[in-house]
Amino acid sequence: MTVTPMMAQYLDLKANYADALLFYRMGDFYEMFFDDAVAAAEALDIALTKRGKHEGADIPMCGVPVHAAEGYLLTLIRKGFRVAVCEQMESPAEAKKRGSKSVVKRDVVRLVTPGTLTEDSLLEARRHNYLAAFAEVRDAQALAWVDISTGAFHVMPLSDLRLGPELARLAPSELIVSESREPDLRETTQDFGIALTGLARSAFDSSGGEARLCTLFGVETLDAYGHFSRAEVSAMGAILQYLEITQKGKLPLLQPPQKEAEARTVQIDAATRRNLELTQALSGGRAGSLLSVIDRTVTAGGARLLERRLSSPSRVLDQVQNRLAGVAWCVEQTAQRDDMRDSLRKVPDLDRAMSRLSMERGGPRDLAAIRNGLTQAGLIHEALNVVSPPDLIADALGNMIGHNILIDHLDAALVAEPPLLARDGGFIAPNHDEELDEARQLRDEGRAVIARMQAEYVSNTGISSLKIKHNNVLGYFIETPATHAEKMLSAPLSETFIHRQTTANQVRFTTVELSEMETKILNAGSRALEIEKRIFEELCNAVLSTAAEIAQTAKALAELDLANALAKLAITENWVMPKVDSSRAFQITNGRHPVVEHALKSGAGEPFIANDCNLSADNTTANIWLLTGPNMAGKSTFLRQNAIIALLAQMGSFVPADAAHIGLISQLFSRVGASDDLARGRSTFMVEMVETAAILNQADDRALVILDEIGRGTATYDGLSIAWATLEHLHDMNKSRALFATHYHEMTALAGKLPGVENATVTVKEWEGDVIFLHEVRKGAADRSYGVQVAQLAGLPPQVIARARVVLDALEKGEREGGATQKTLIDDLPLFSATPVAPPPKQKTSEVETLLADILPDELTPRQALDALYKLKDAAKS
Questions:
Q1: Which has the closest alpha carbon to 167: 148, 185, 140?
Q2: What is the DSSP string of 524-559?
Q3: How many helices, marked H, and strands, marked E, lie in the chain?
Q4: Could you give the percent of the chain with pLDDT greater than 70?
């Protein structure tokens, strides 16, 4: 069967994008055909229809409306699809000029992938959307990443070993690698939910990459931005080539690349990030994470900066202290702090508005966002420049000014509330352009002229129901009810009114005068729109010509928002400024876990029990707390809260404590909780051992390590041996500051043998066979784990609890006497006996309980109630 010209065009375009769904523009819809239609209909839950035949079979088809396409795009991207957007490059009228059967020219204008989104509706305003590339040149590797929606561009040297932790830190949406490395990295990217894209080796050519970078930034050499290795240039060049492919040559406005170094940030592996729930809760999503609890930012840029700081705490002392000084200054500004916060609320997302304008996807509202953001920046500078801020705030304020000419230009040109799209018109203010005002006047007066013409025609014909109307087919026309057709078609009216169309109920006419006025009105309207589009392009060029300065202002606003937000957090939650220095101190007074404390306040309003922690160590000996105590007593919370306090301090935040002195930590390791990895064939114990091995092999003497229940996933003596040896290695070899929680009470003996180990315990209180958790951490060791009591609280049947107590007593007695073997214990305790264990005897009912059972309160008179009370009192005495 012959393929239609339109379907031939579709198949030609689809052949170039075999791995993507093709959104084929047809009028007001994006249509999909063949396998694309089947896949999209299922993913989007829309109707699957058919259109014509191909090779004797029906062609499956589905479509989505253009005006709602962004929502469908987001769904497809989240489900792992890529989408090639194919637009009409000419109007149907232009196509017909080439012949009545000519097909409208179409071409793909953009390839939409997870890492190349720019629209607000497709992105989370408070999170970065990174596109990353990993490159190898001989023995060197590097990772580059970019957020095209904000222009942020970074690169760093990176070994294969560090790739996983860095991907966990950045959480990019998409990773570009050489096709030869795709199979090796597929498992890693799947773990983090990252889309993996393979490019040909030529995309990673460092010479070509350097040329692309120099062309993009308009320089002869990259030396002005720093010294980059061939691997780093290769990674950055691969990103640029991928953007050229996906954006069809319309590169985003990228900032000059910033080189990062591992030595400048605290190294945190993926397991630790997961265990501490820094930016994402274990259950998935932002809610319940540390980030969700501490976020008080009011701008999108400030929120993104907070997530970056929390994910990458600094280990550069001057930087940490400058950030803390900025927060402290905001805390002190009691009179201006709330006003500053209100002003910041009015700041739009400058970075993303600039990015859309640079890629020709912006609209009048993006120009208004630039105008409003720069205006607010000037007002904030004016309000705060009268005081003496610290360096961090002073630098930010200095970058908020210097835009007066651009602000005045935009303010004069734009209306207060412009429409979303430039094609809608109406966004240029009156009196800004004389030619535009003339076109608008003619267009608007033309409407009044049409109304006067209608009144004149009604008067001349005597037909009060005569109307002048407009549609896209006929243009302006005169319409009367069919009952007046004979009058209109007869002389003398037929000499003036020219018949155009007859419908079932109406008759339509025109006049020479009406046709001439229509031409004037239509020309004026289209001319006005063309003038507005020209002015829009001029305004965009004016904005983009100062892109670097606007980017600095956006960065300054984010910095000020973050400092103000952390100050707000410190005041409302009673946090304190930590002392951070280059020592090996680690002393927390009345520290608290911010997420748990928030949950308690939000729930029953219970107070959080604060605790001290002192891991301060000299230059030769590690200081380790060996923490014992029952489950549910708060050991894991205590471990986590101290790690979180250290991270908060080094990101430049106040901390949840009465006082804190923290010597810079270089690495943070956490082995808390139990999980398996069945997809890789790893049991819970294997995962535990893999994570422990990573800690022991990597932790240095400036690391902070928190370990919980090492060795509990295997047999008792195996586990005890592993835990014992692990603690010794941390003490003797790693020399790290550490918190080591365990149920192996035998290990408390190490406190007397290793000078850097000290025992601590989470206290409990027993009352009538039950255990009460006090959540207090004190020096000393626990004598037992209270496992049976915890099992009772969990709701195990009374028979099980009673039997467990019997078995526990026998086992402990055997251990004390030292002579009972396991077999003897089993013989003495019929653990496998077929005889059921008798339930515990019921307690005898007391006299008070008997009297209470006979009392019916609703039937007692006041006198009878008083008598009953005296009887109960006498029974209680006896």
A1: 185
A2: HHHHHHHHHHHHHHHHHHHHHTTHHHHHHHHHHHHH
A3: 30, 27
A4: 92
Specify the pairing of strand 757-767 against strand 770-779. Answer: antiparallel
List, for residues 767-776, the tens digit of each pLDDT value: 666 667 788 9
**Residue 730 is which amino acid?**
L
Q: What is the mean pLDDT of the chain?
A: 88
pLDDT for the residue numbered 857: 80
Which positions ≥6 away from 46 have C-beta within 8 Å?
40, 62, 64
Helices of type H across 119-172: 160-170
Q: Which residues pair with 671 in a beta bridge?
A: 707
Location of structure tokens 């600095």: 552
Query: Is the peptide bond preceding residue 257 cis, with omega within 30 degrees of 0?
Result: no
* Binding-site annotation: residue ranges: 629-636
Residues 577-594 as b or e (16 or more Cβ within 10 Å = b): bbbbeeebbbbbebbbbb
Asked whether the beta carbons of 317 and 582 are under 8 A apart, the reply is yes
Tokens for 536?
A: 């829009």
User: Using N-to-C axis directions, what is the helix angle for 337-345 and 364-384, rounded to 10°?
Assistant: 170
Question: Coil, strand or helix: which one is 686?
Answer: helix
Phi first, then psi: give them for residue 54, nearest 5 degrees: -140, 120
In the predicted model, is pLDDT for residue 380 greater than 90?
Answer: yes
Question: Concatenated DSSP letters for 55-106?
Answer: TTEEEEEEEEEGGGHHHHHHHHHHTT--EEEEEESS-HHHHHTT-TTPPPPE
Binding residues for ATP: 629-636
Pairwise CA distance, residues 510 & 497, whole Å: 6
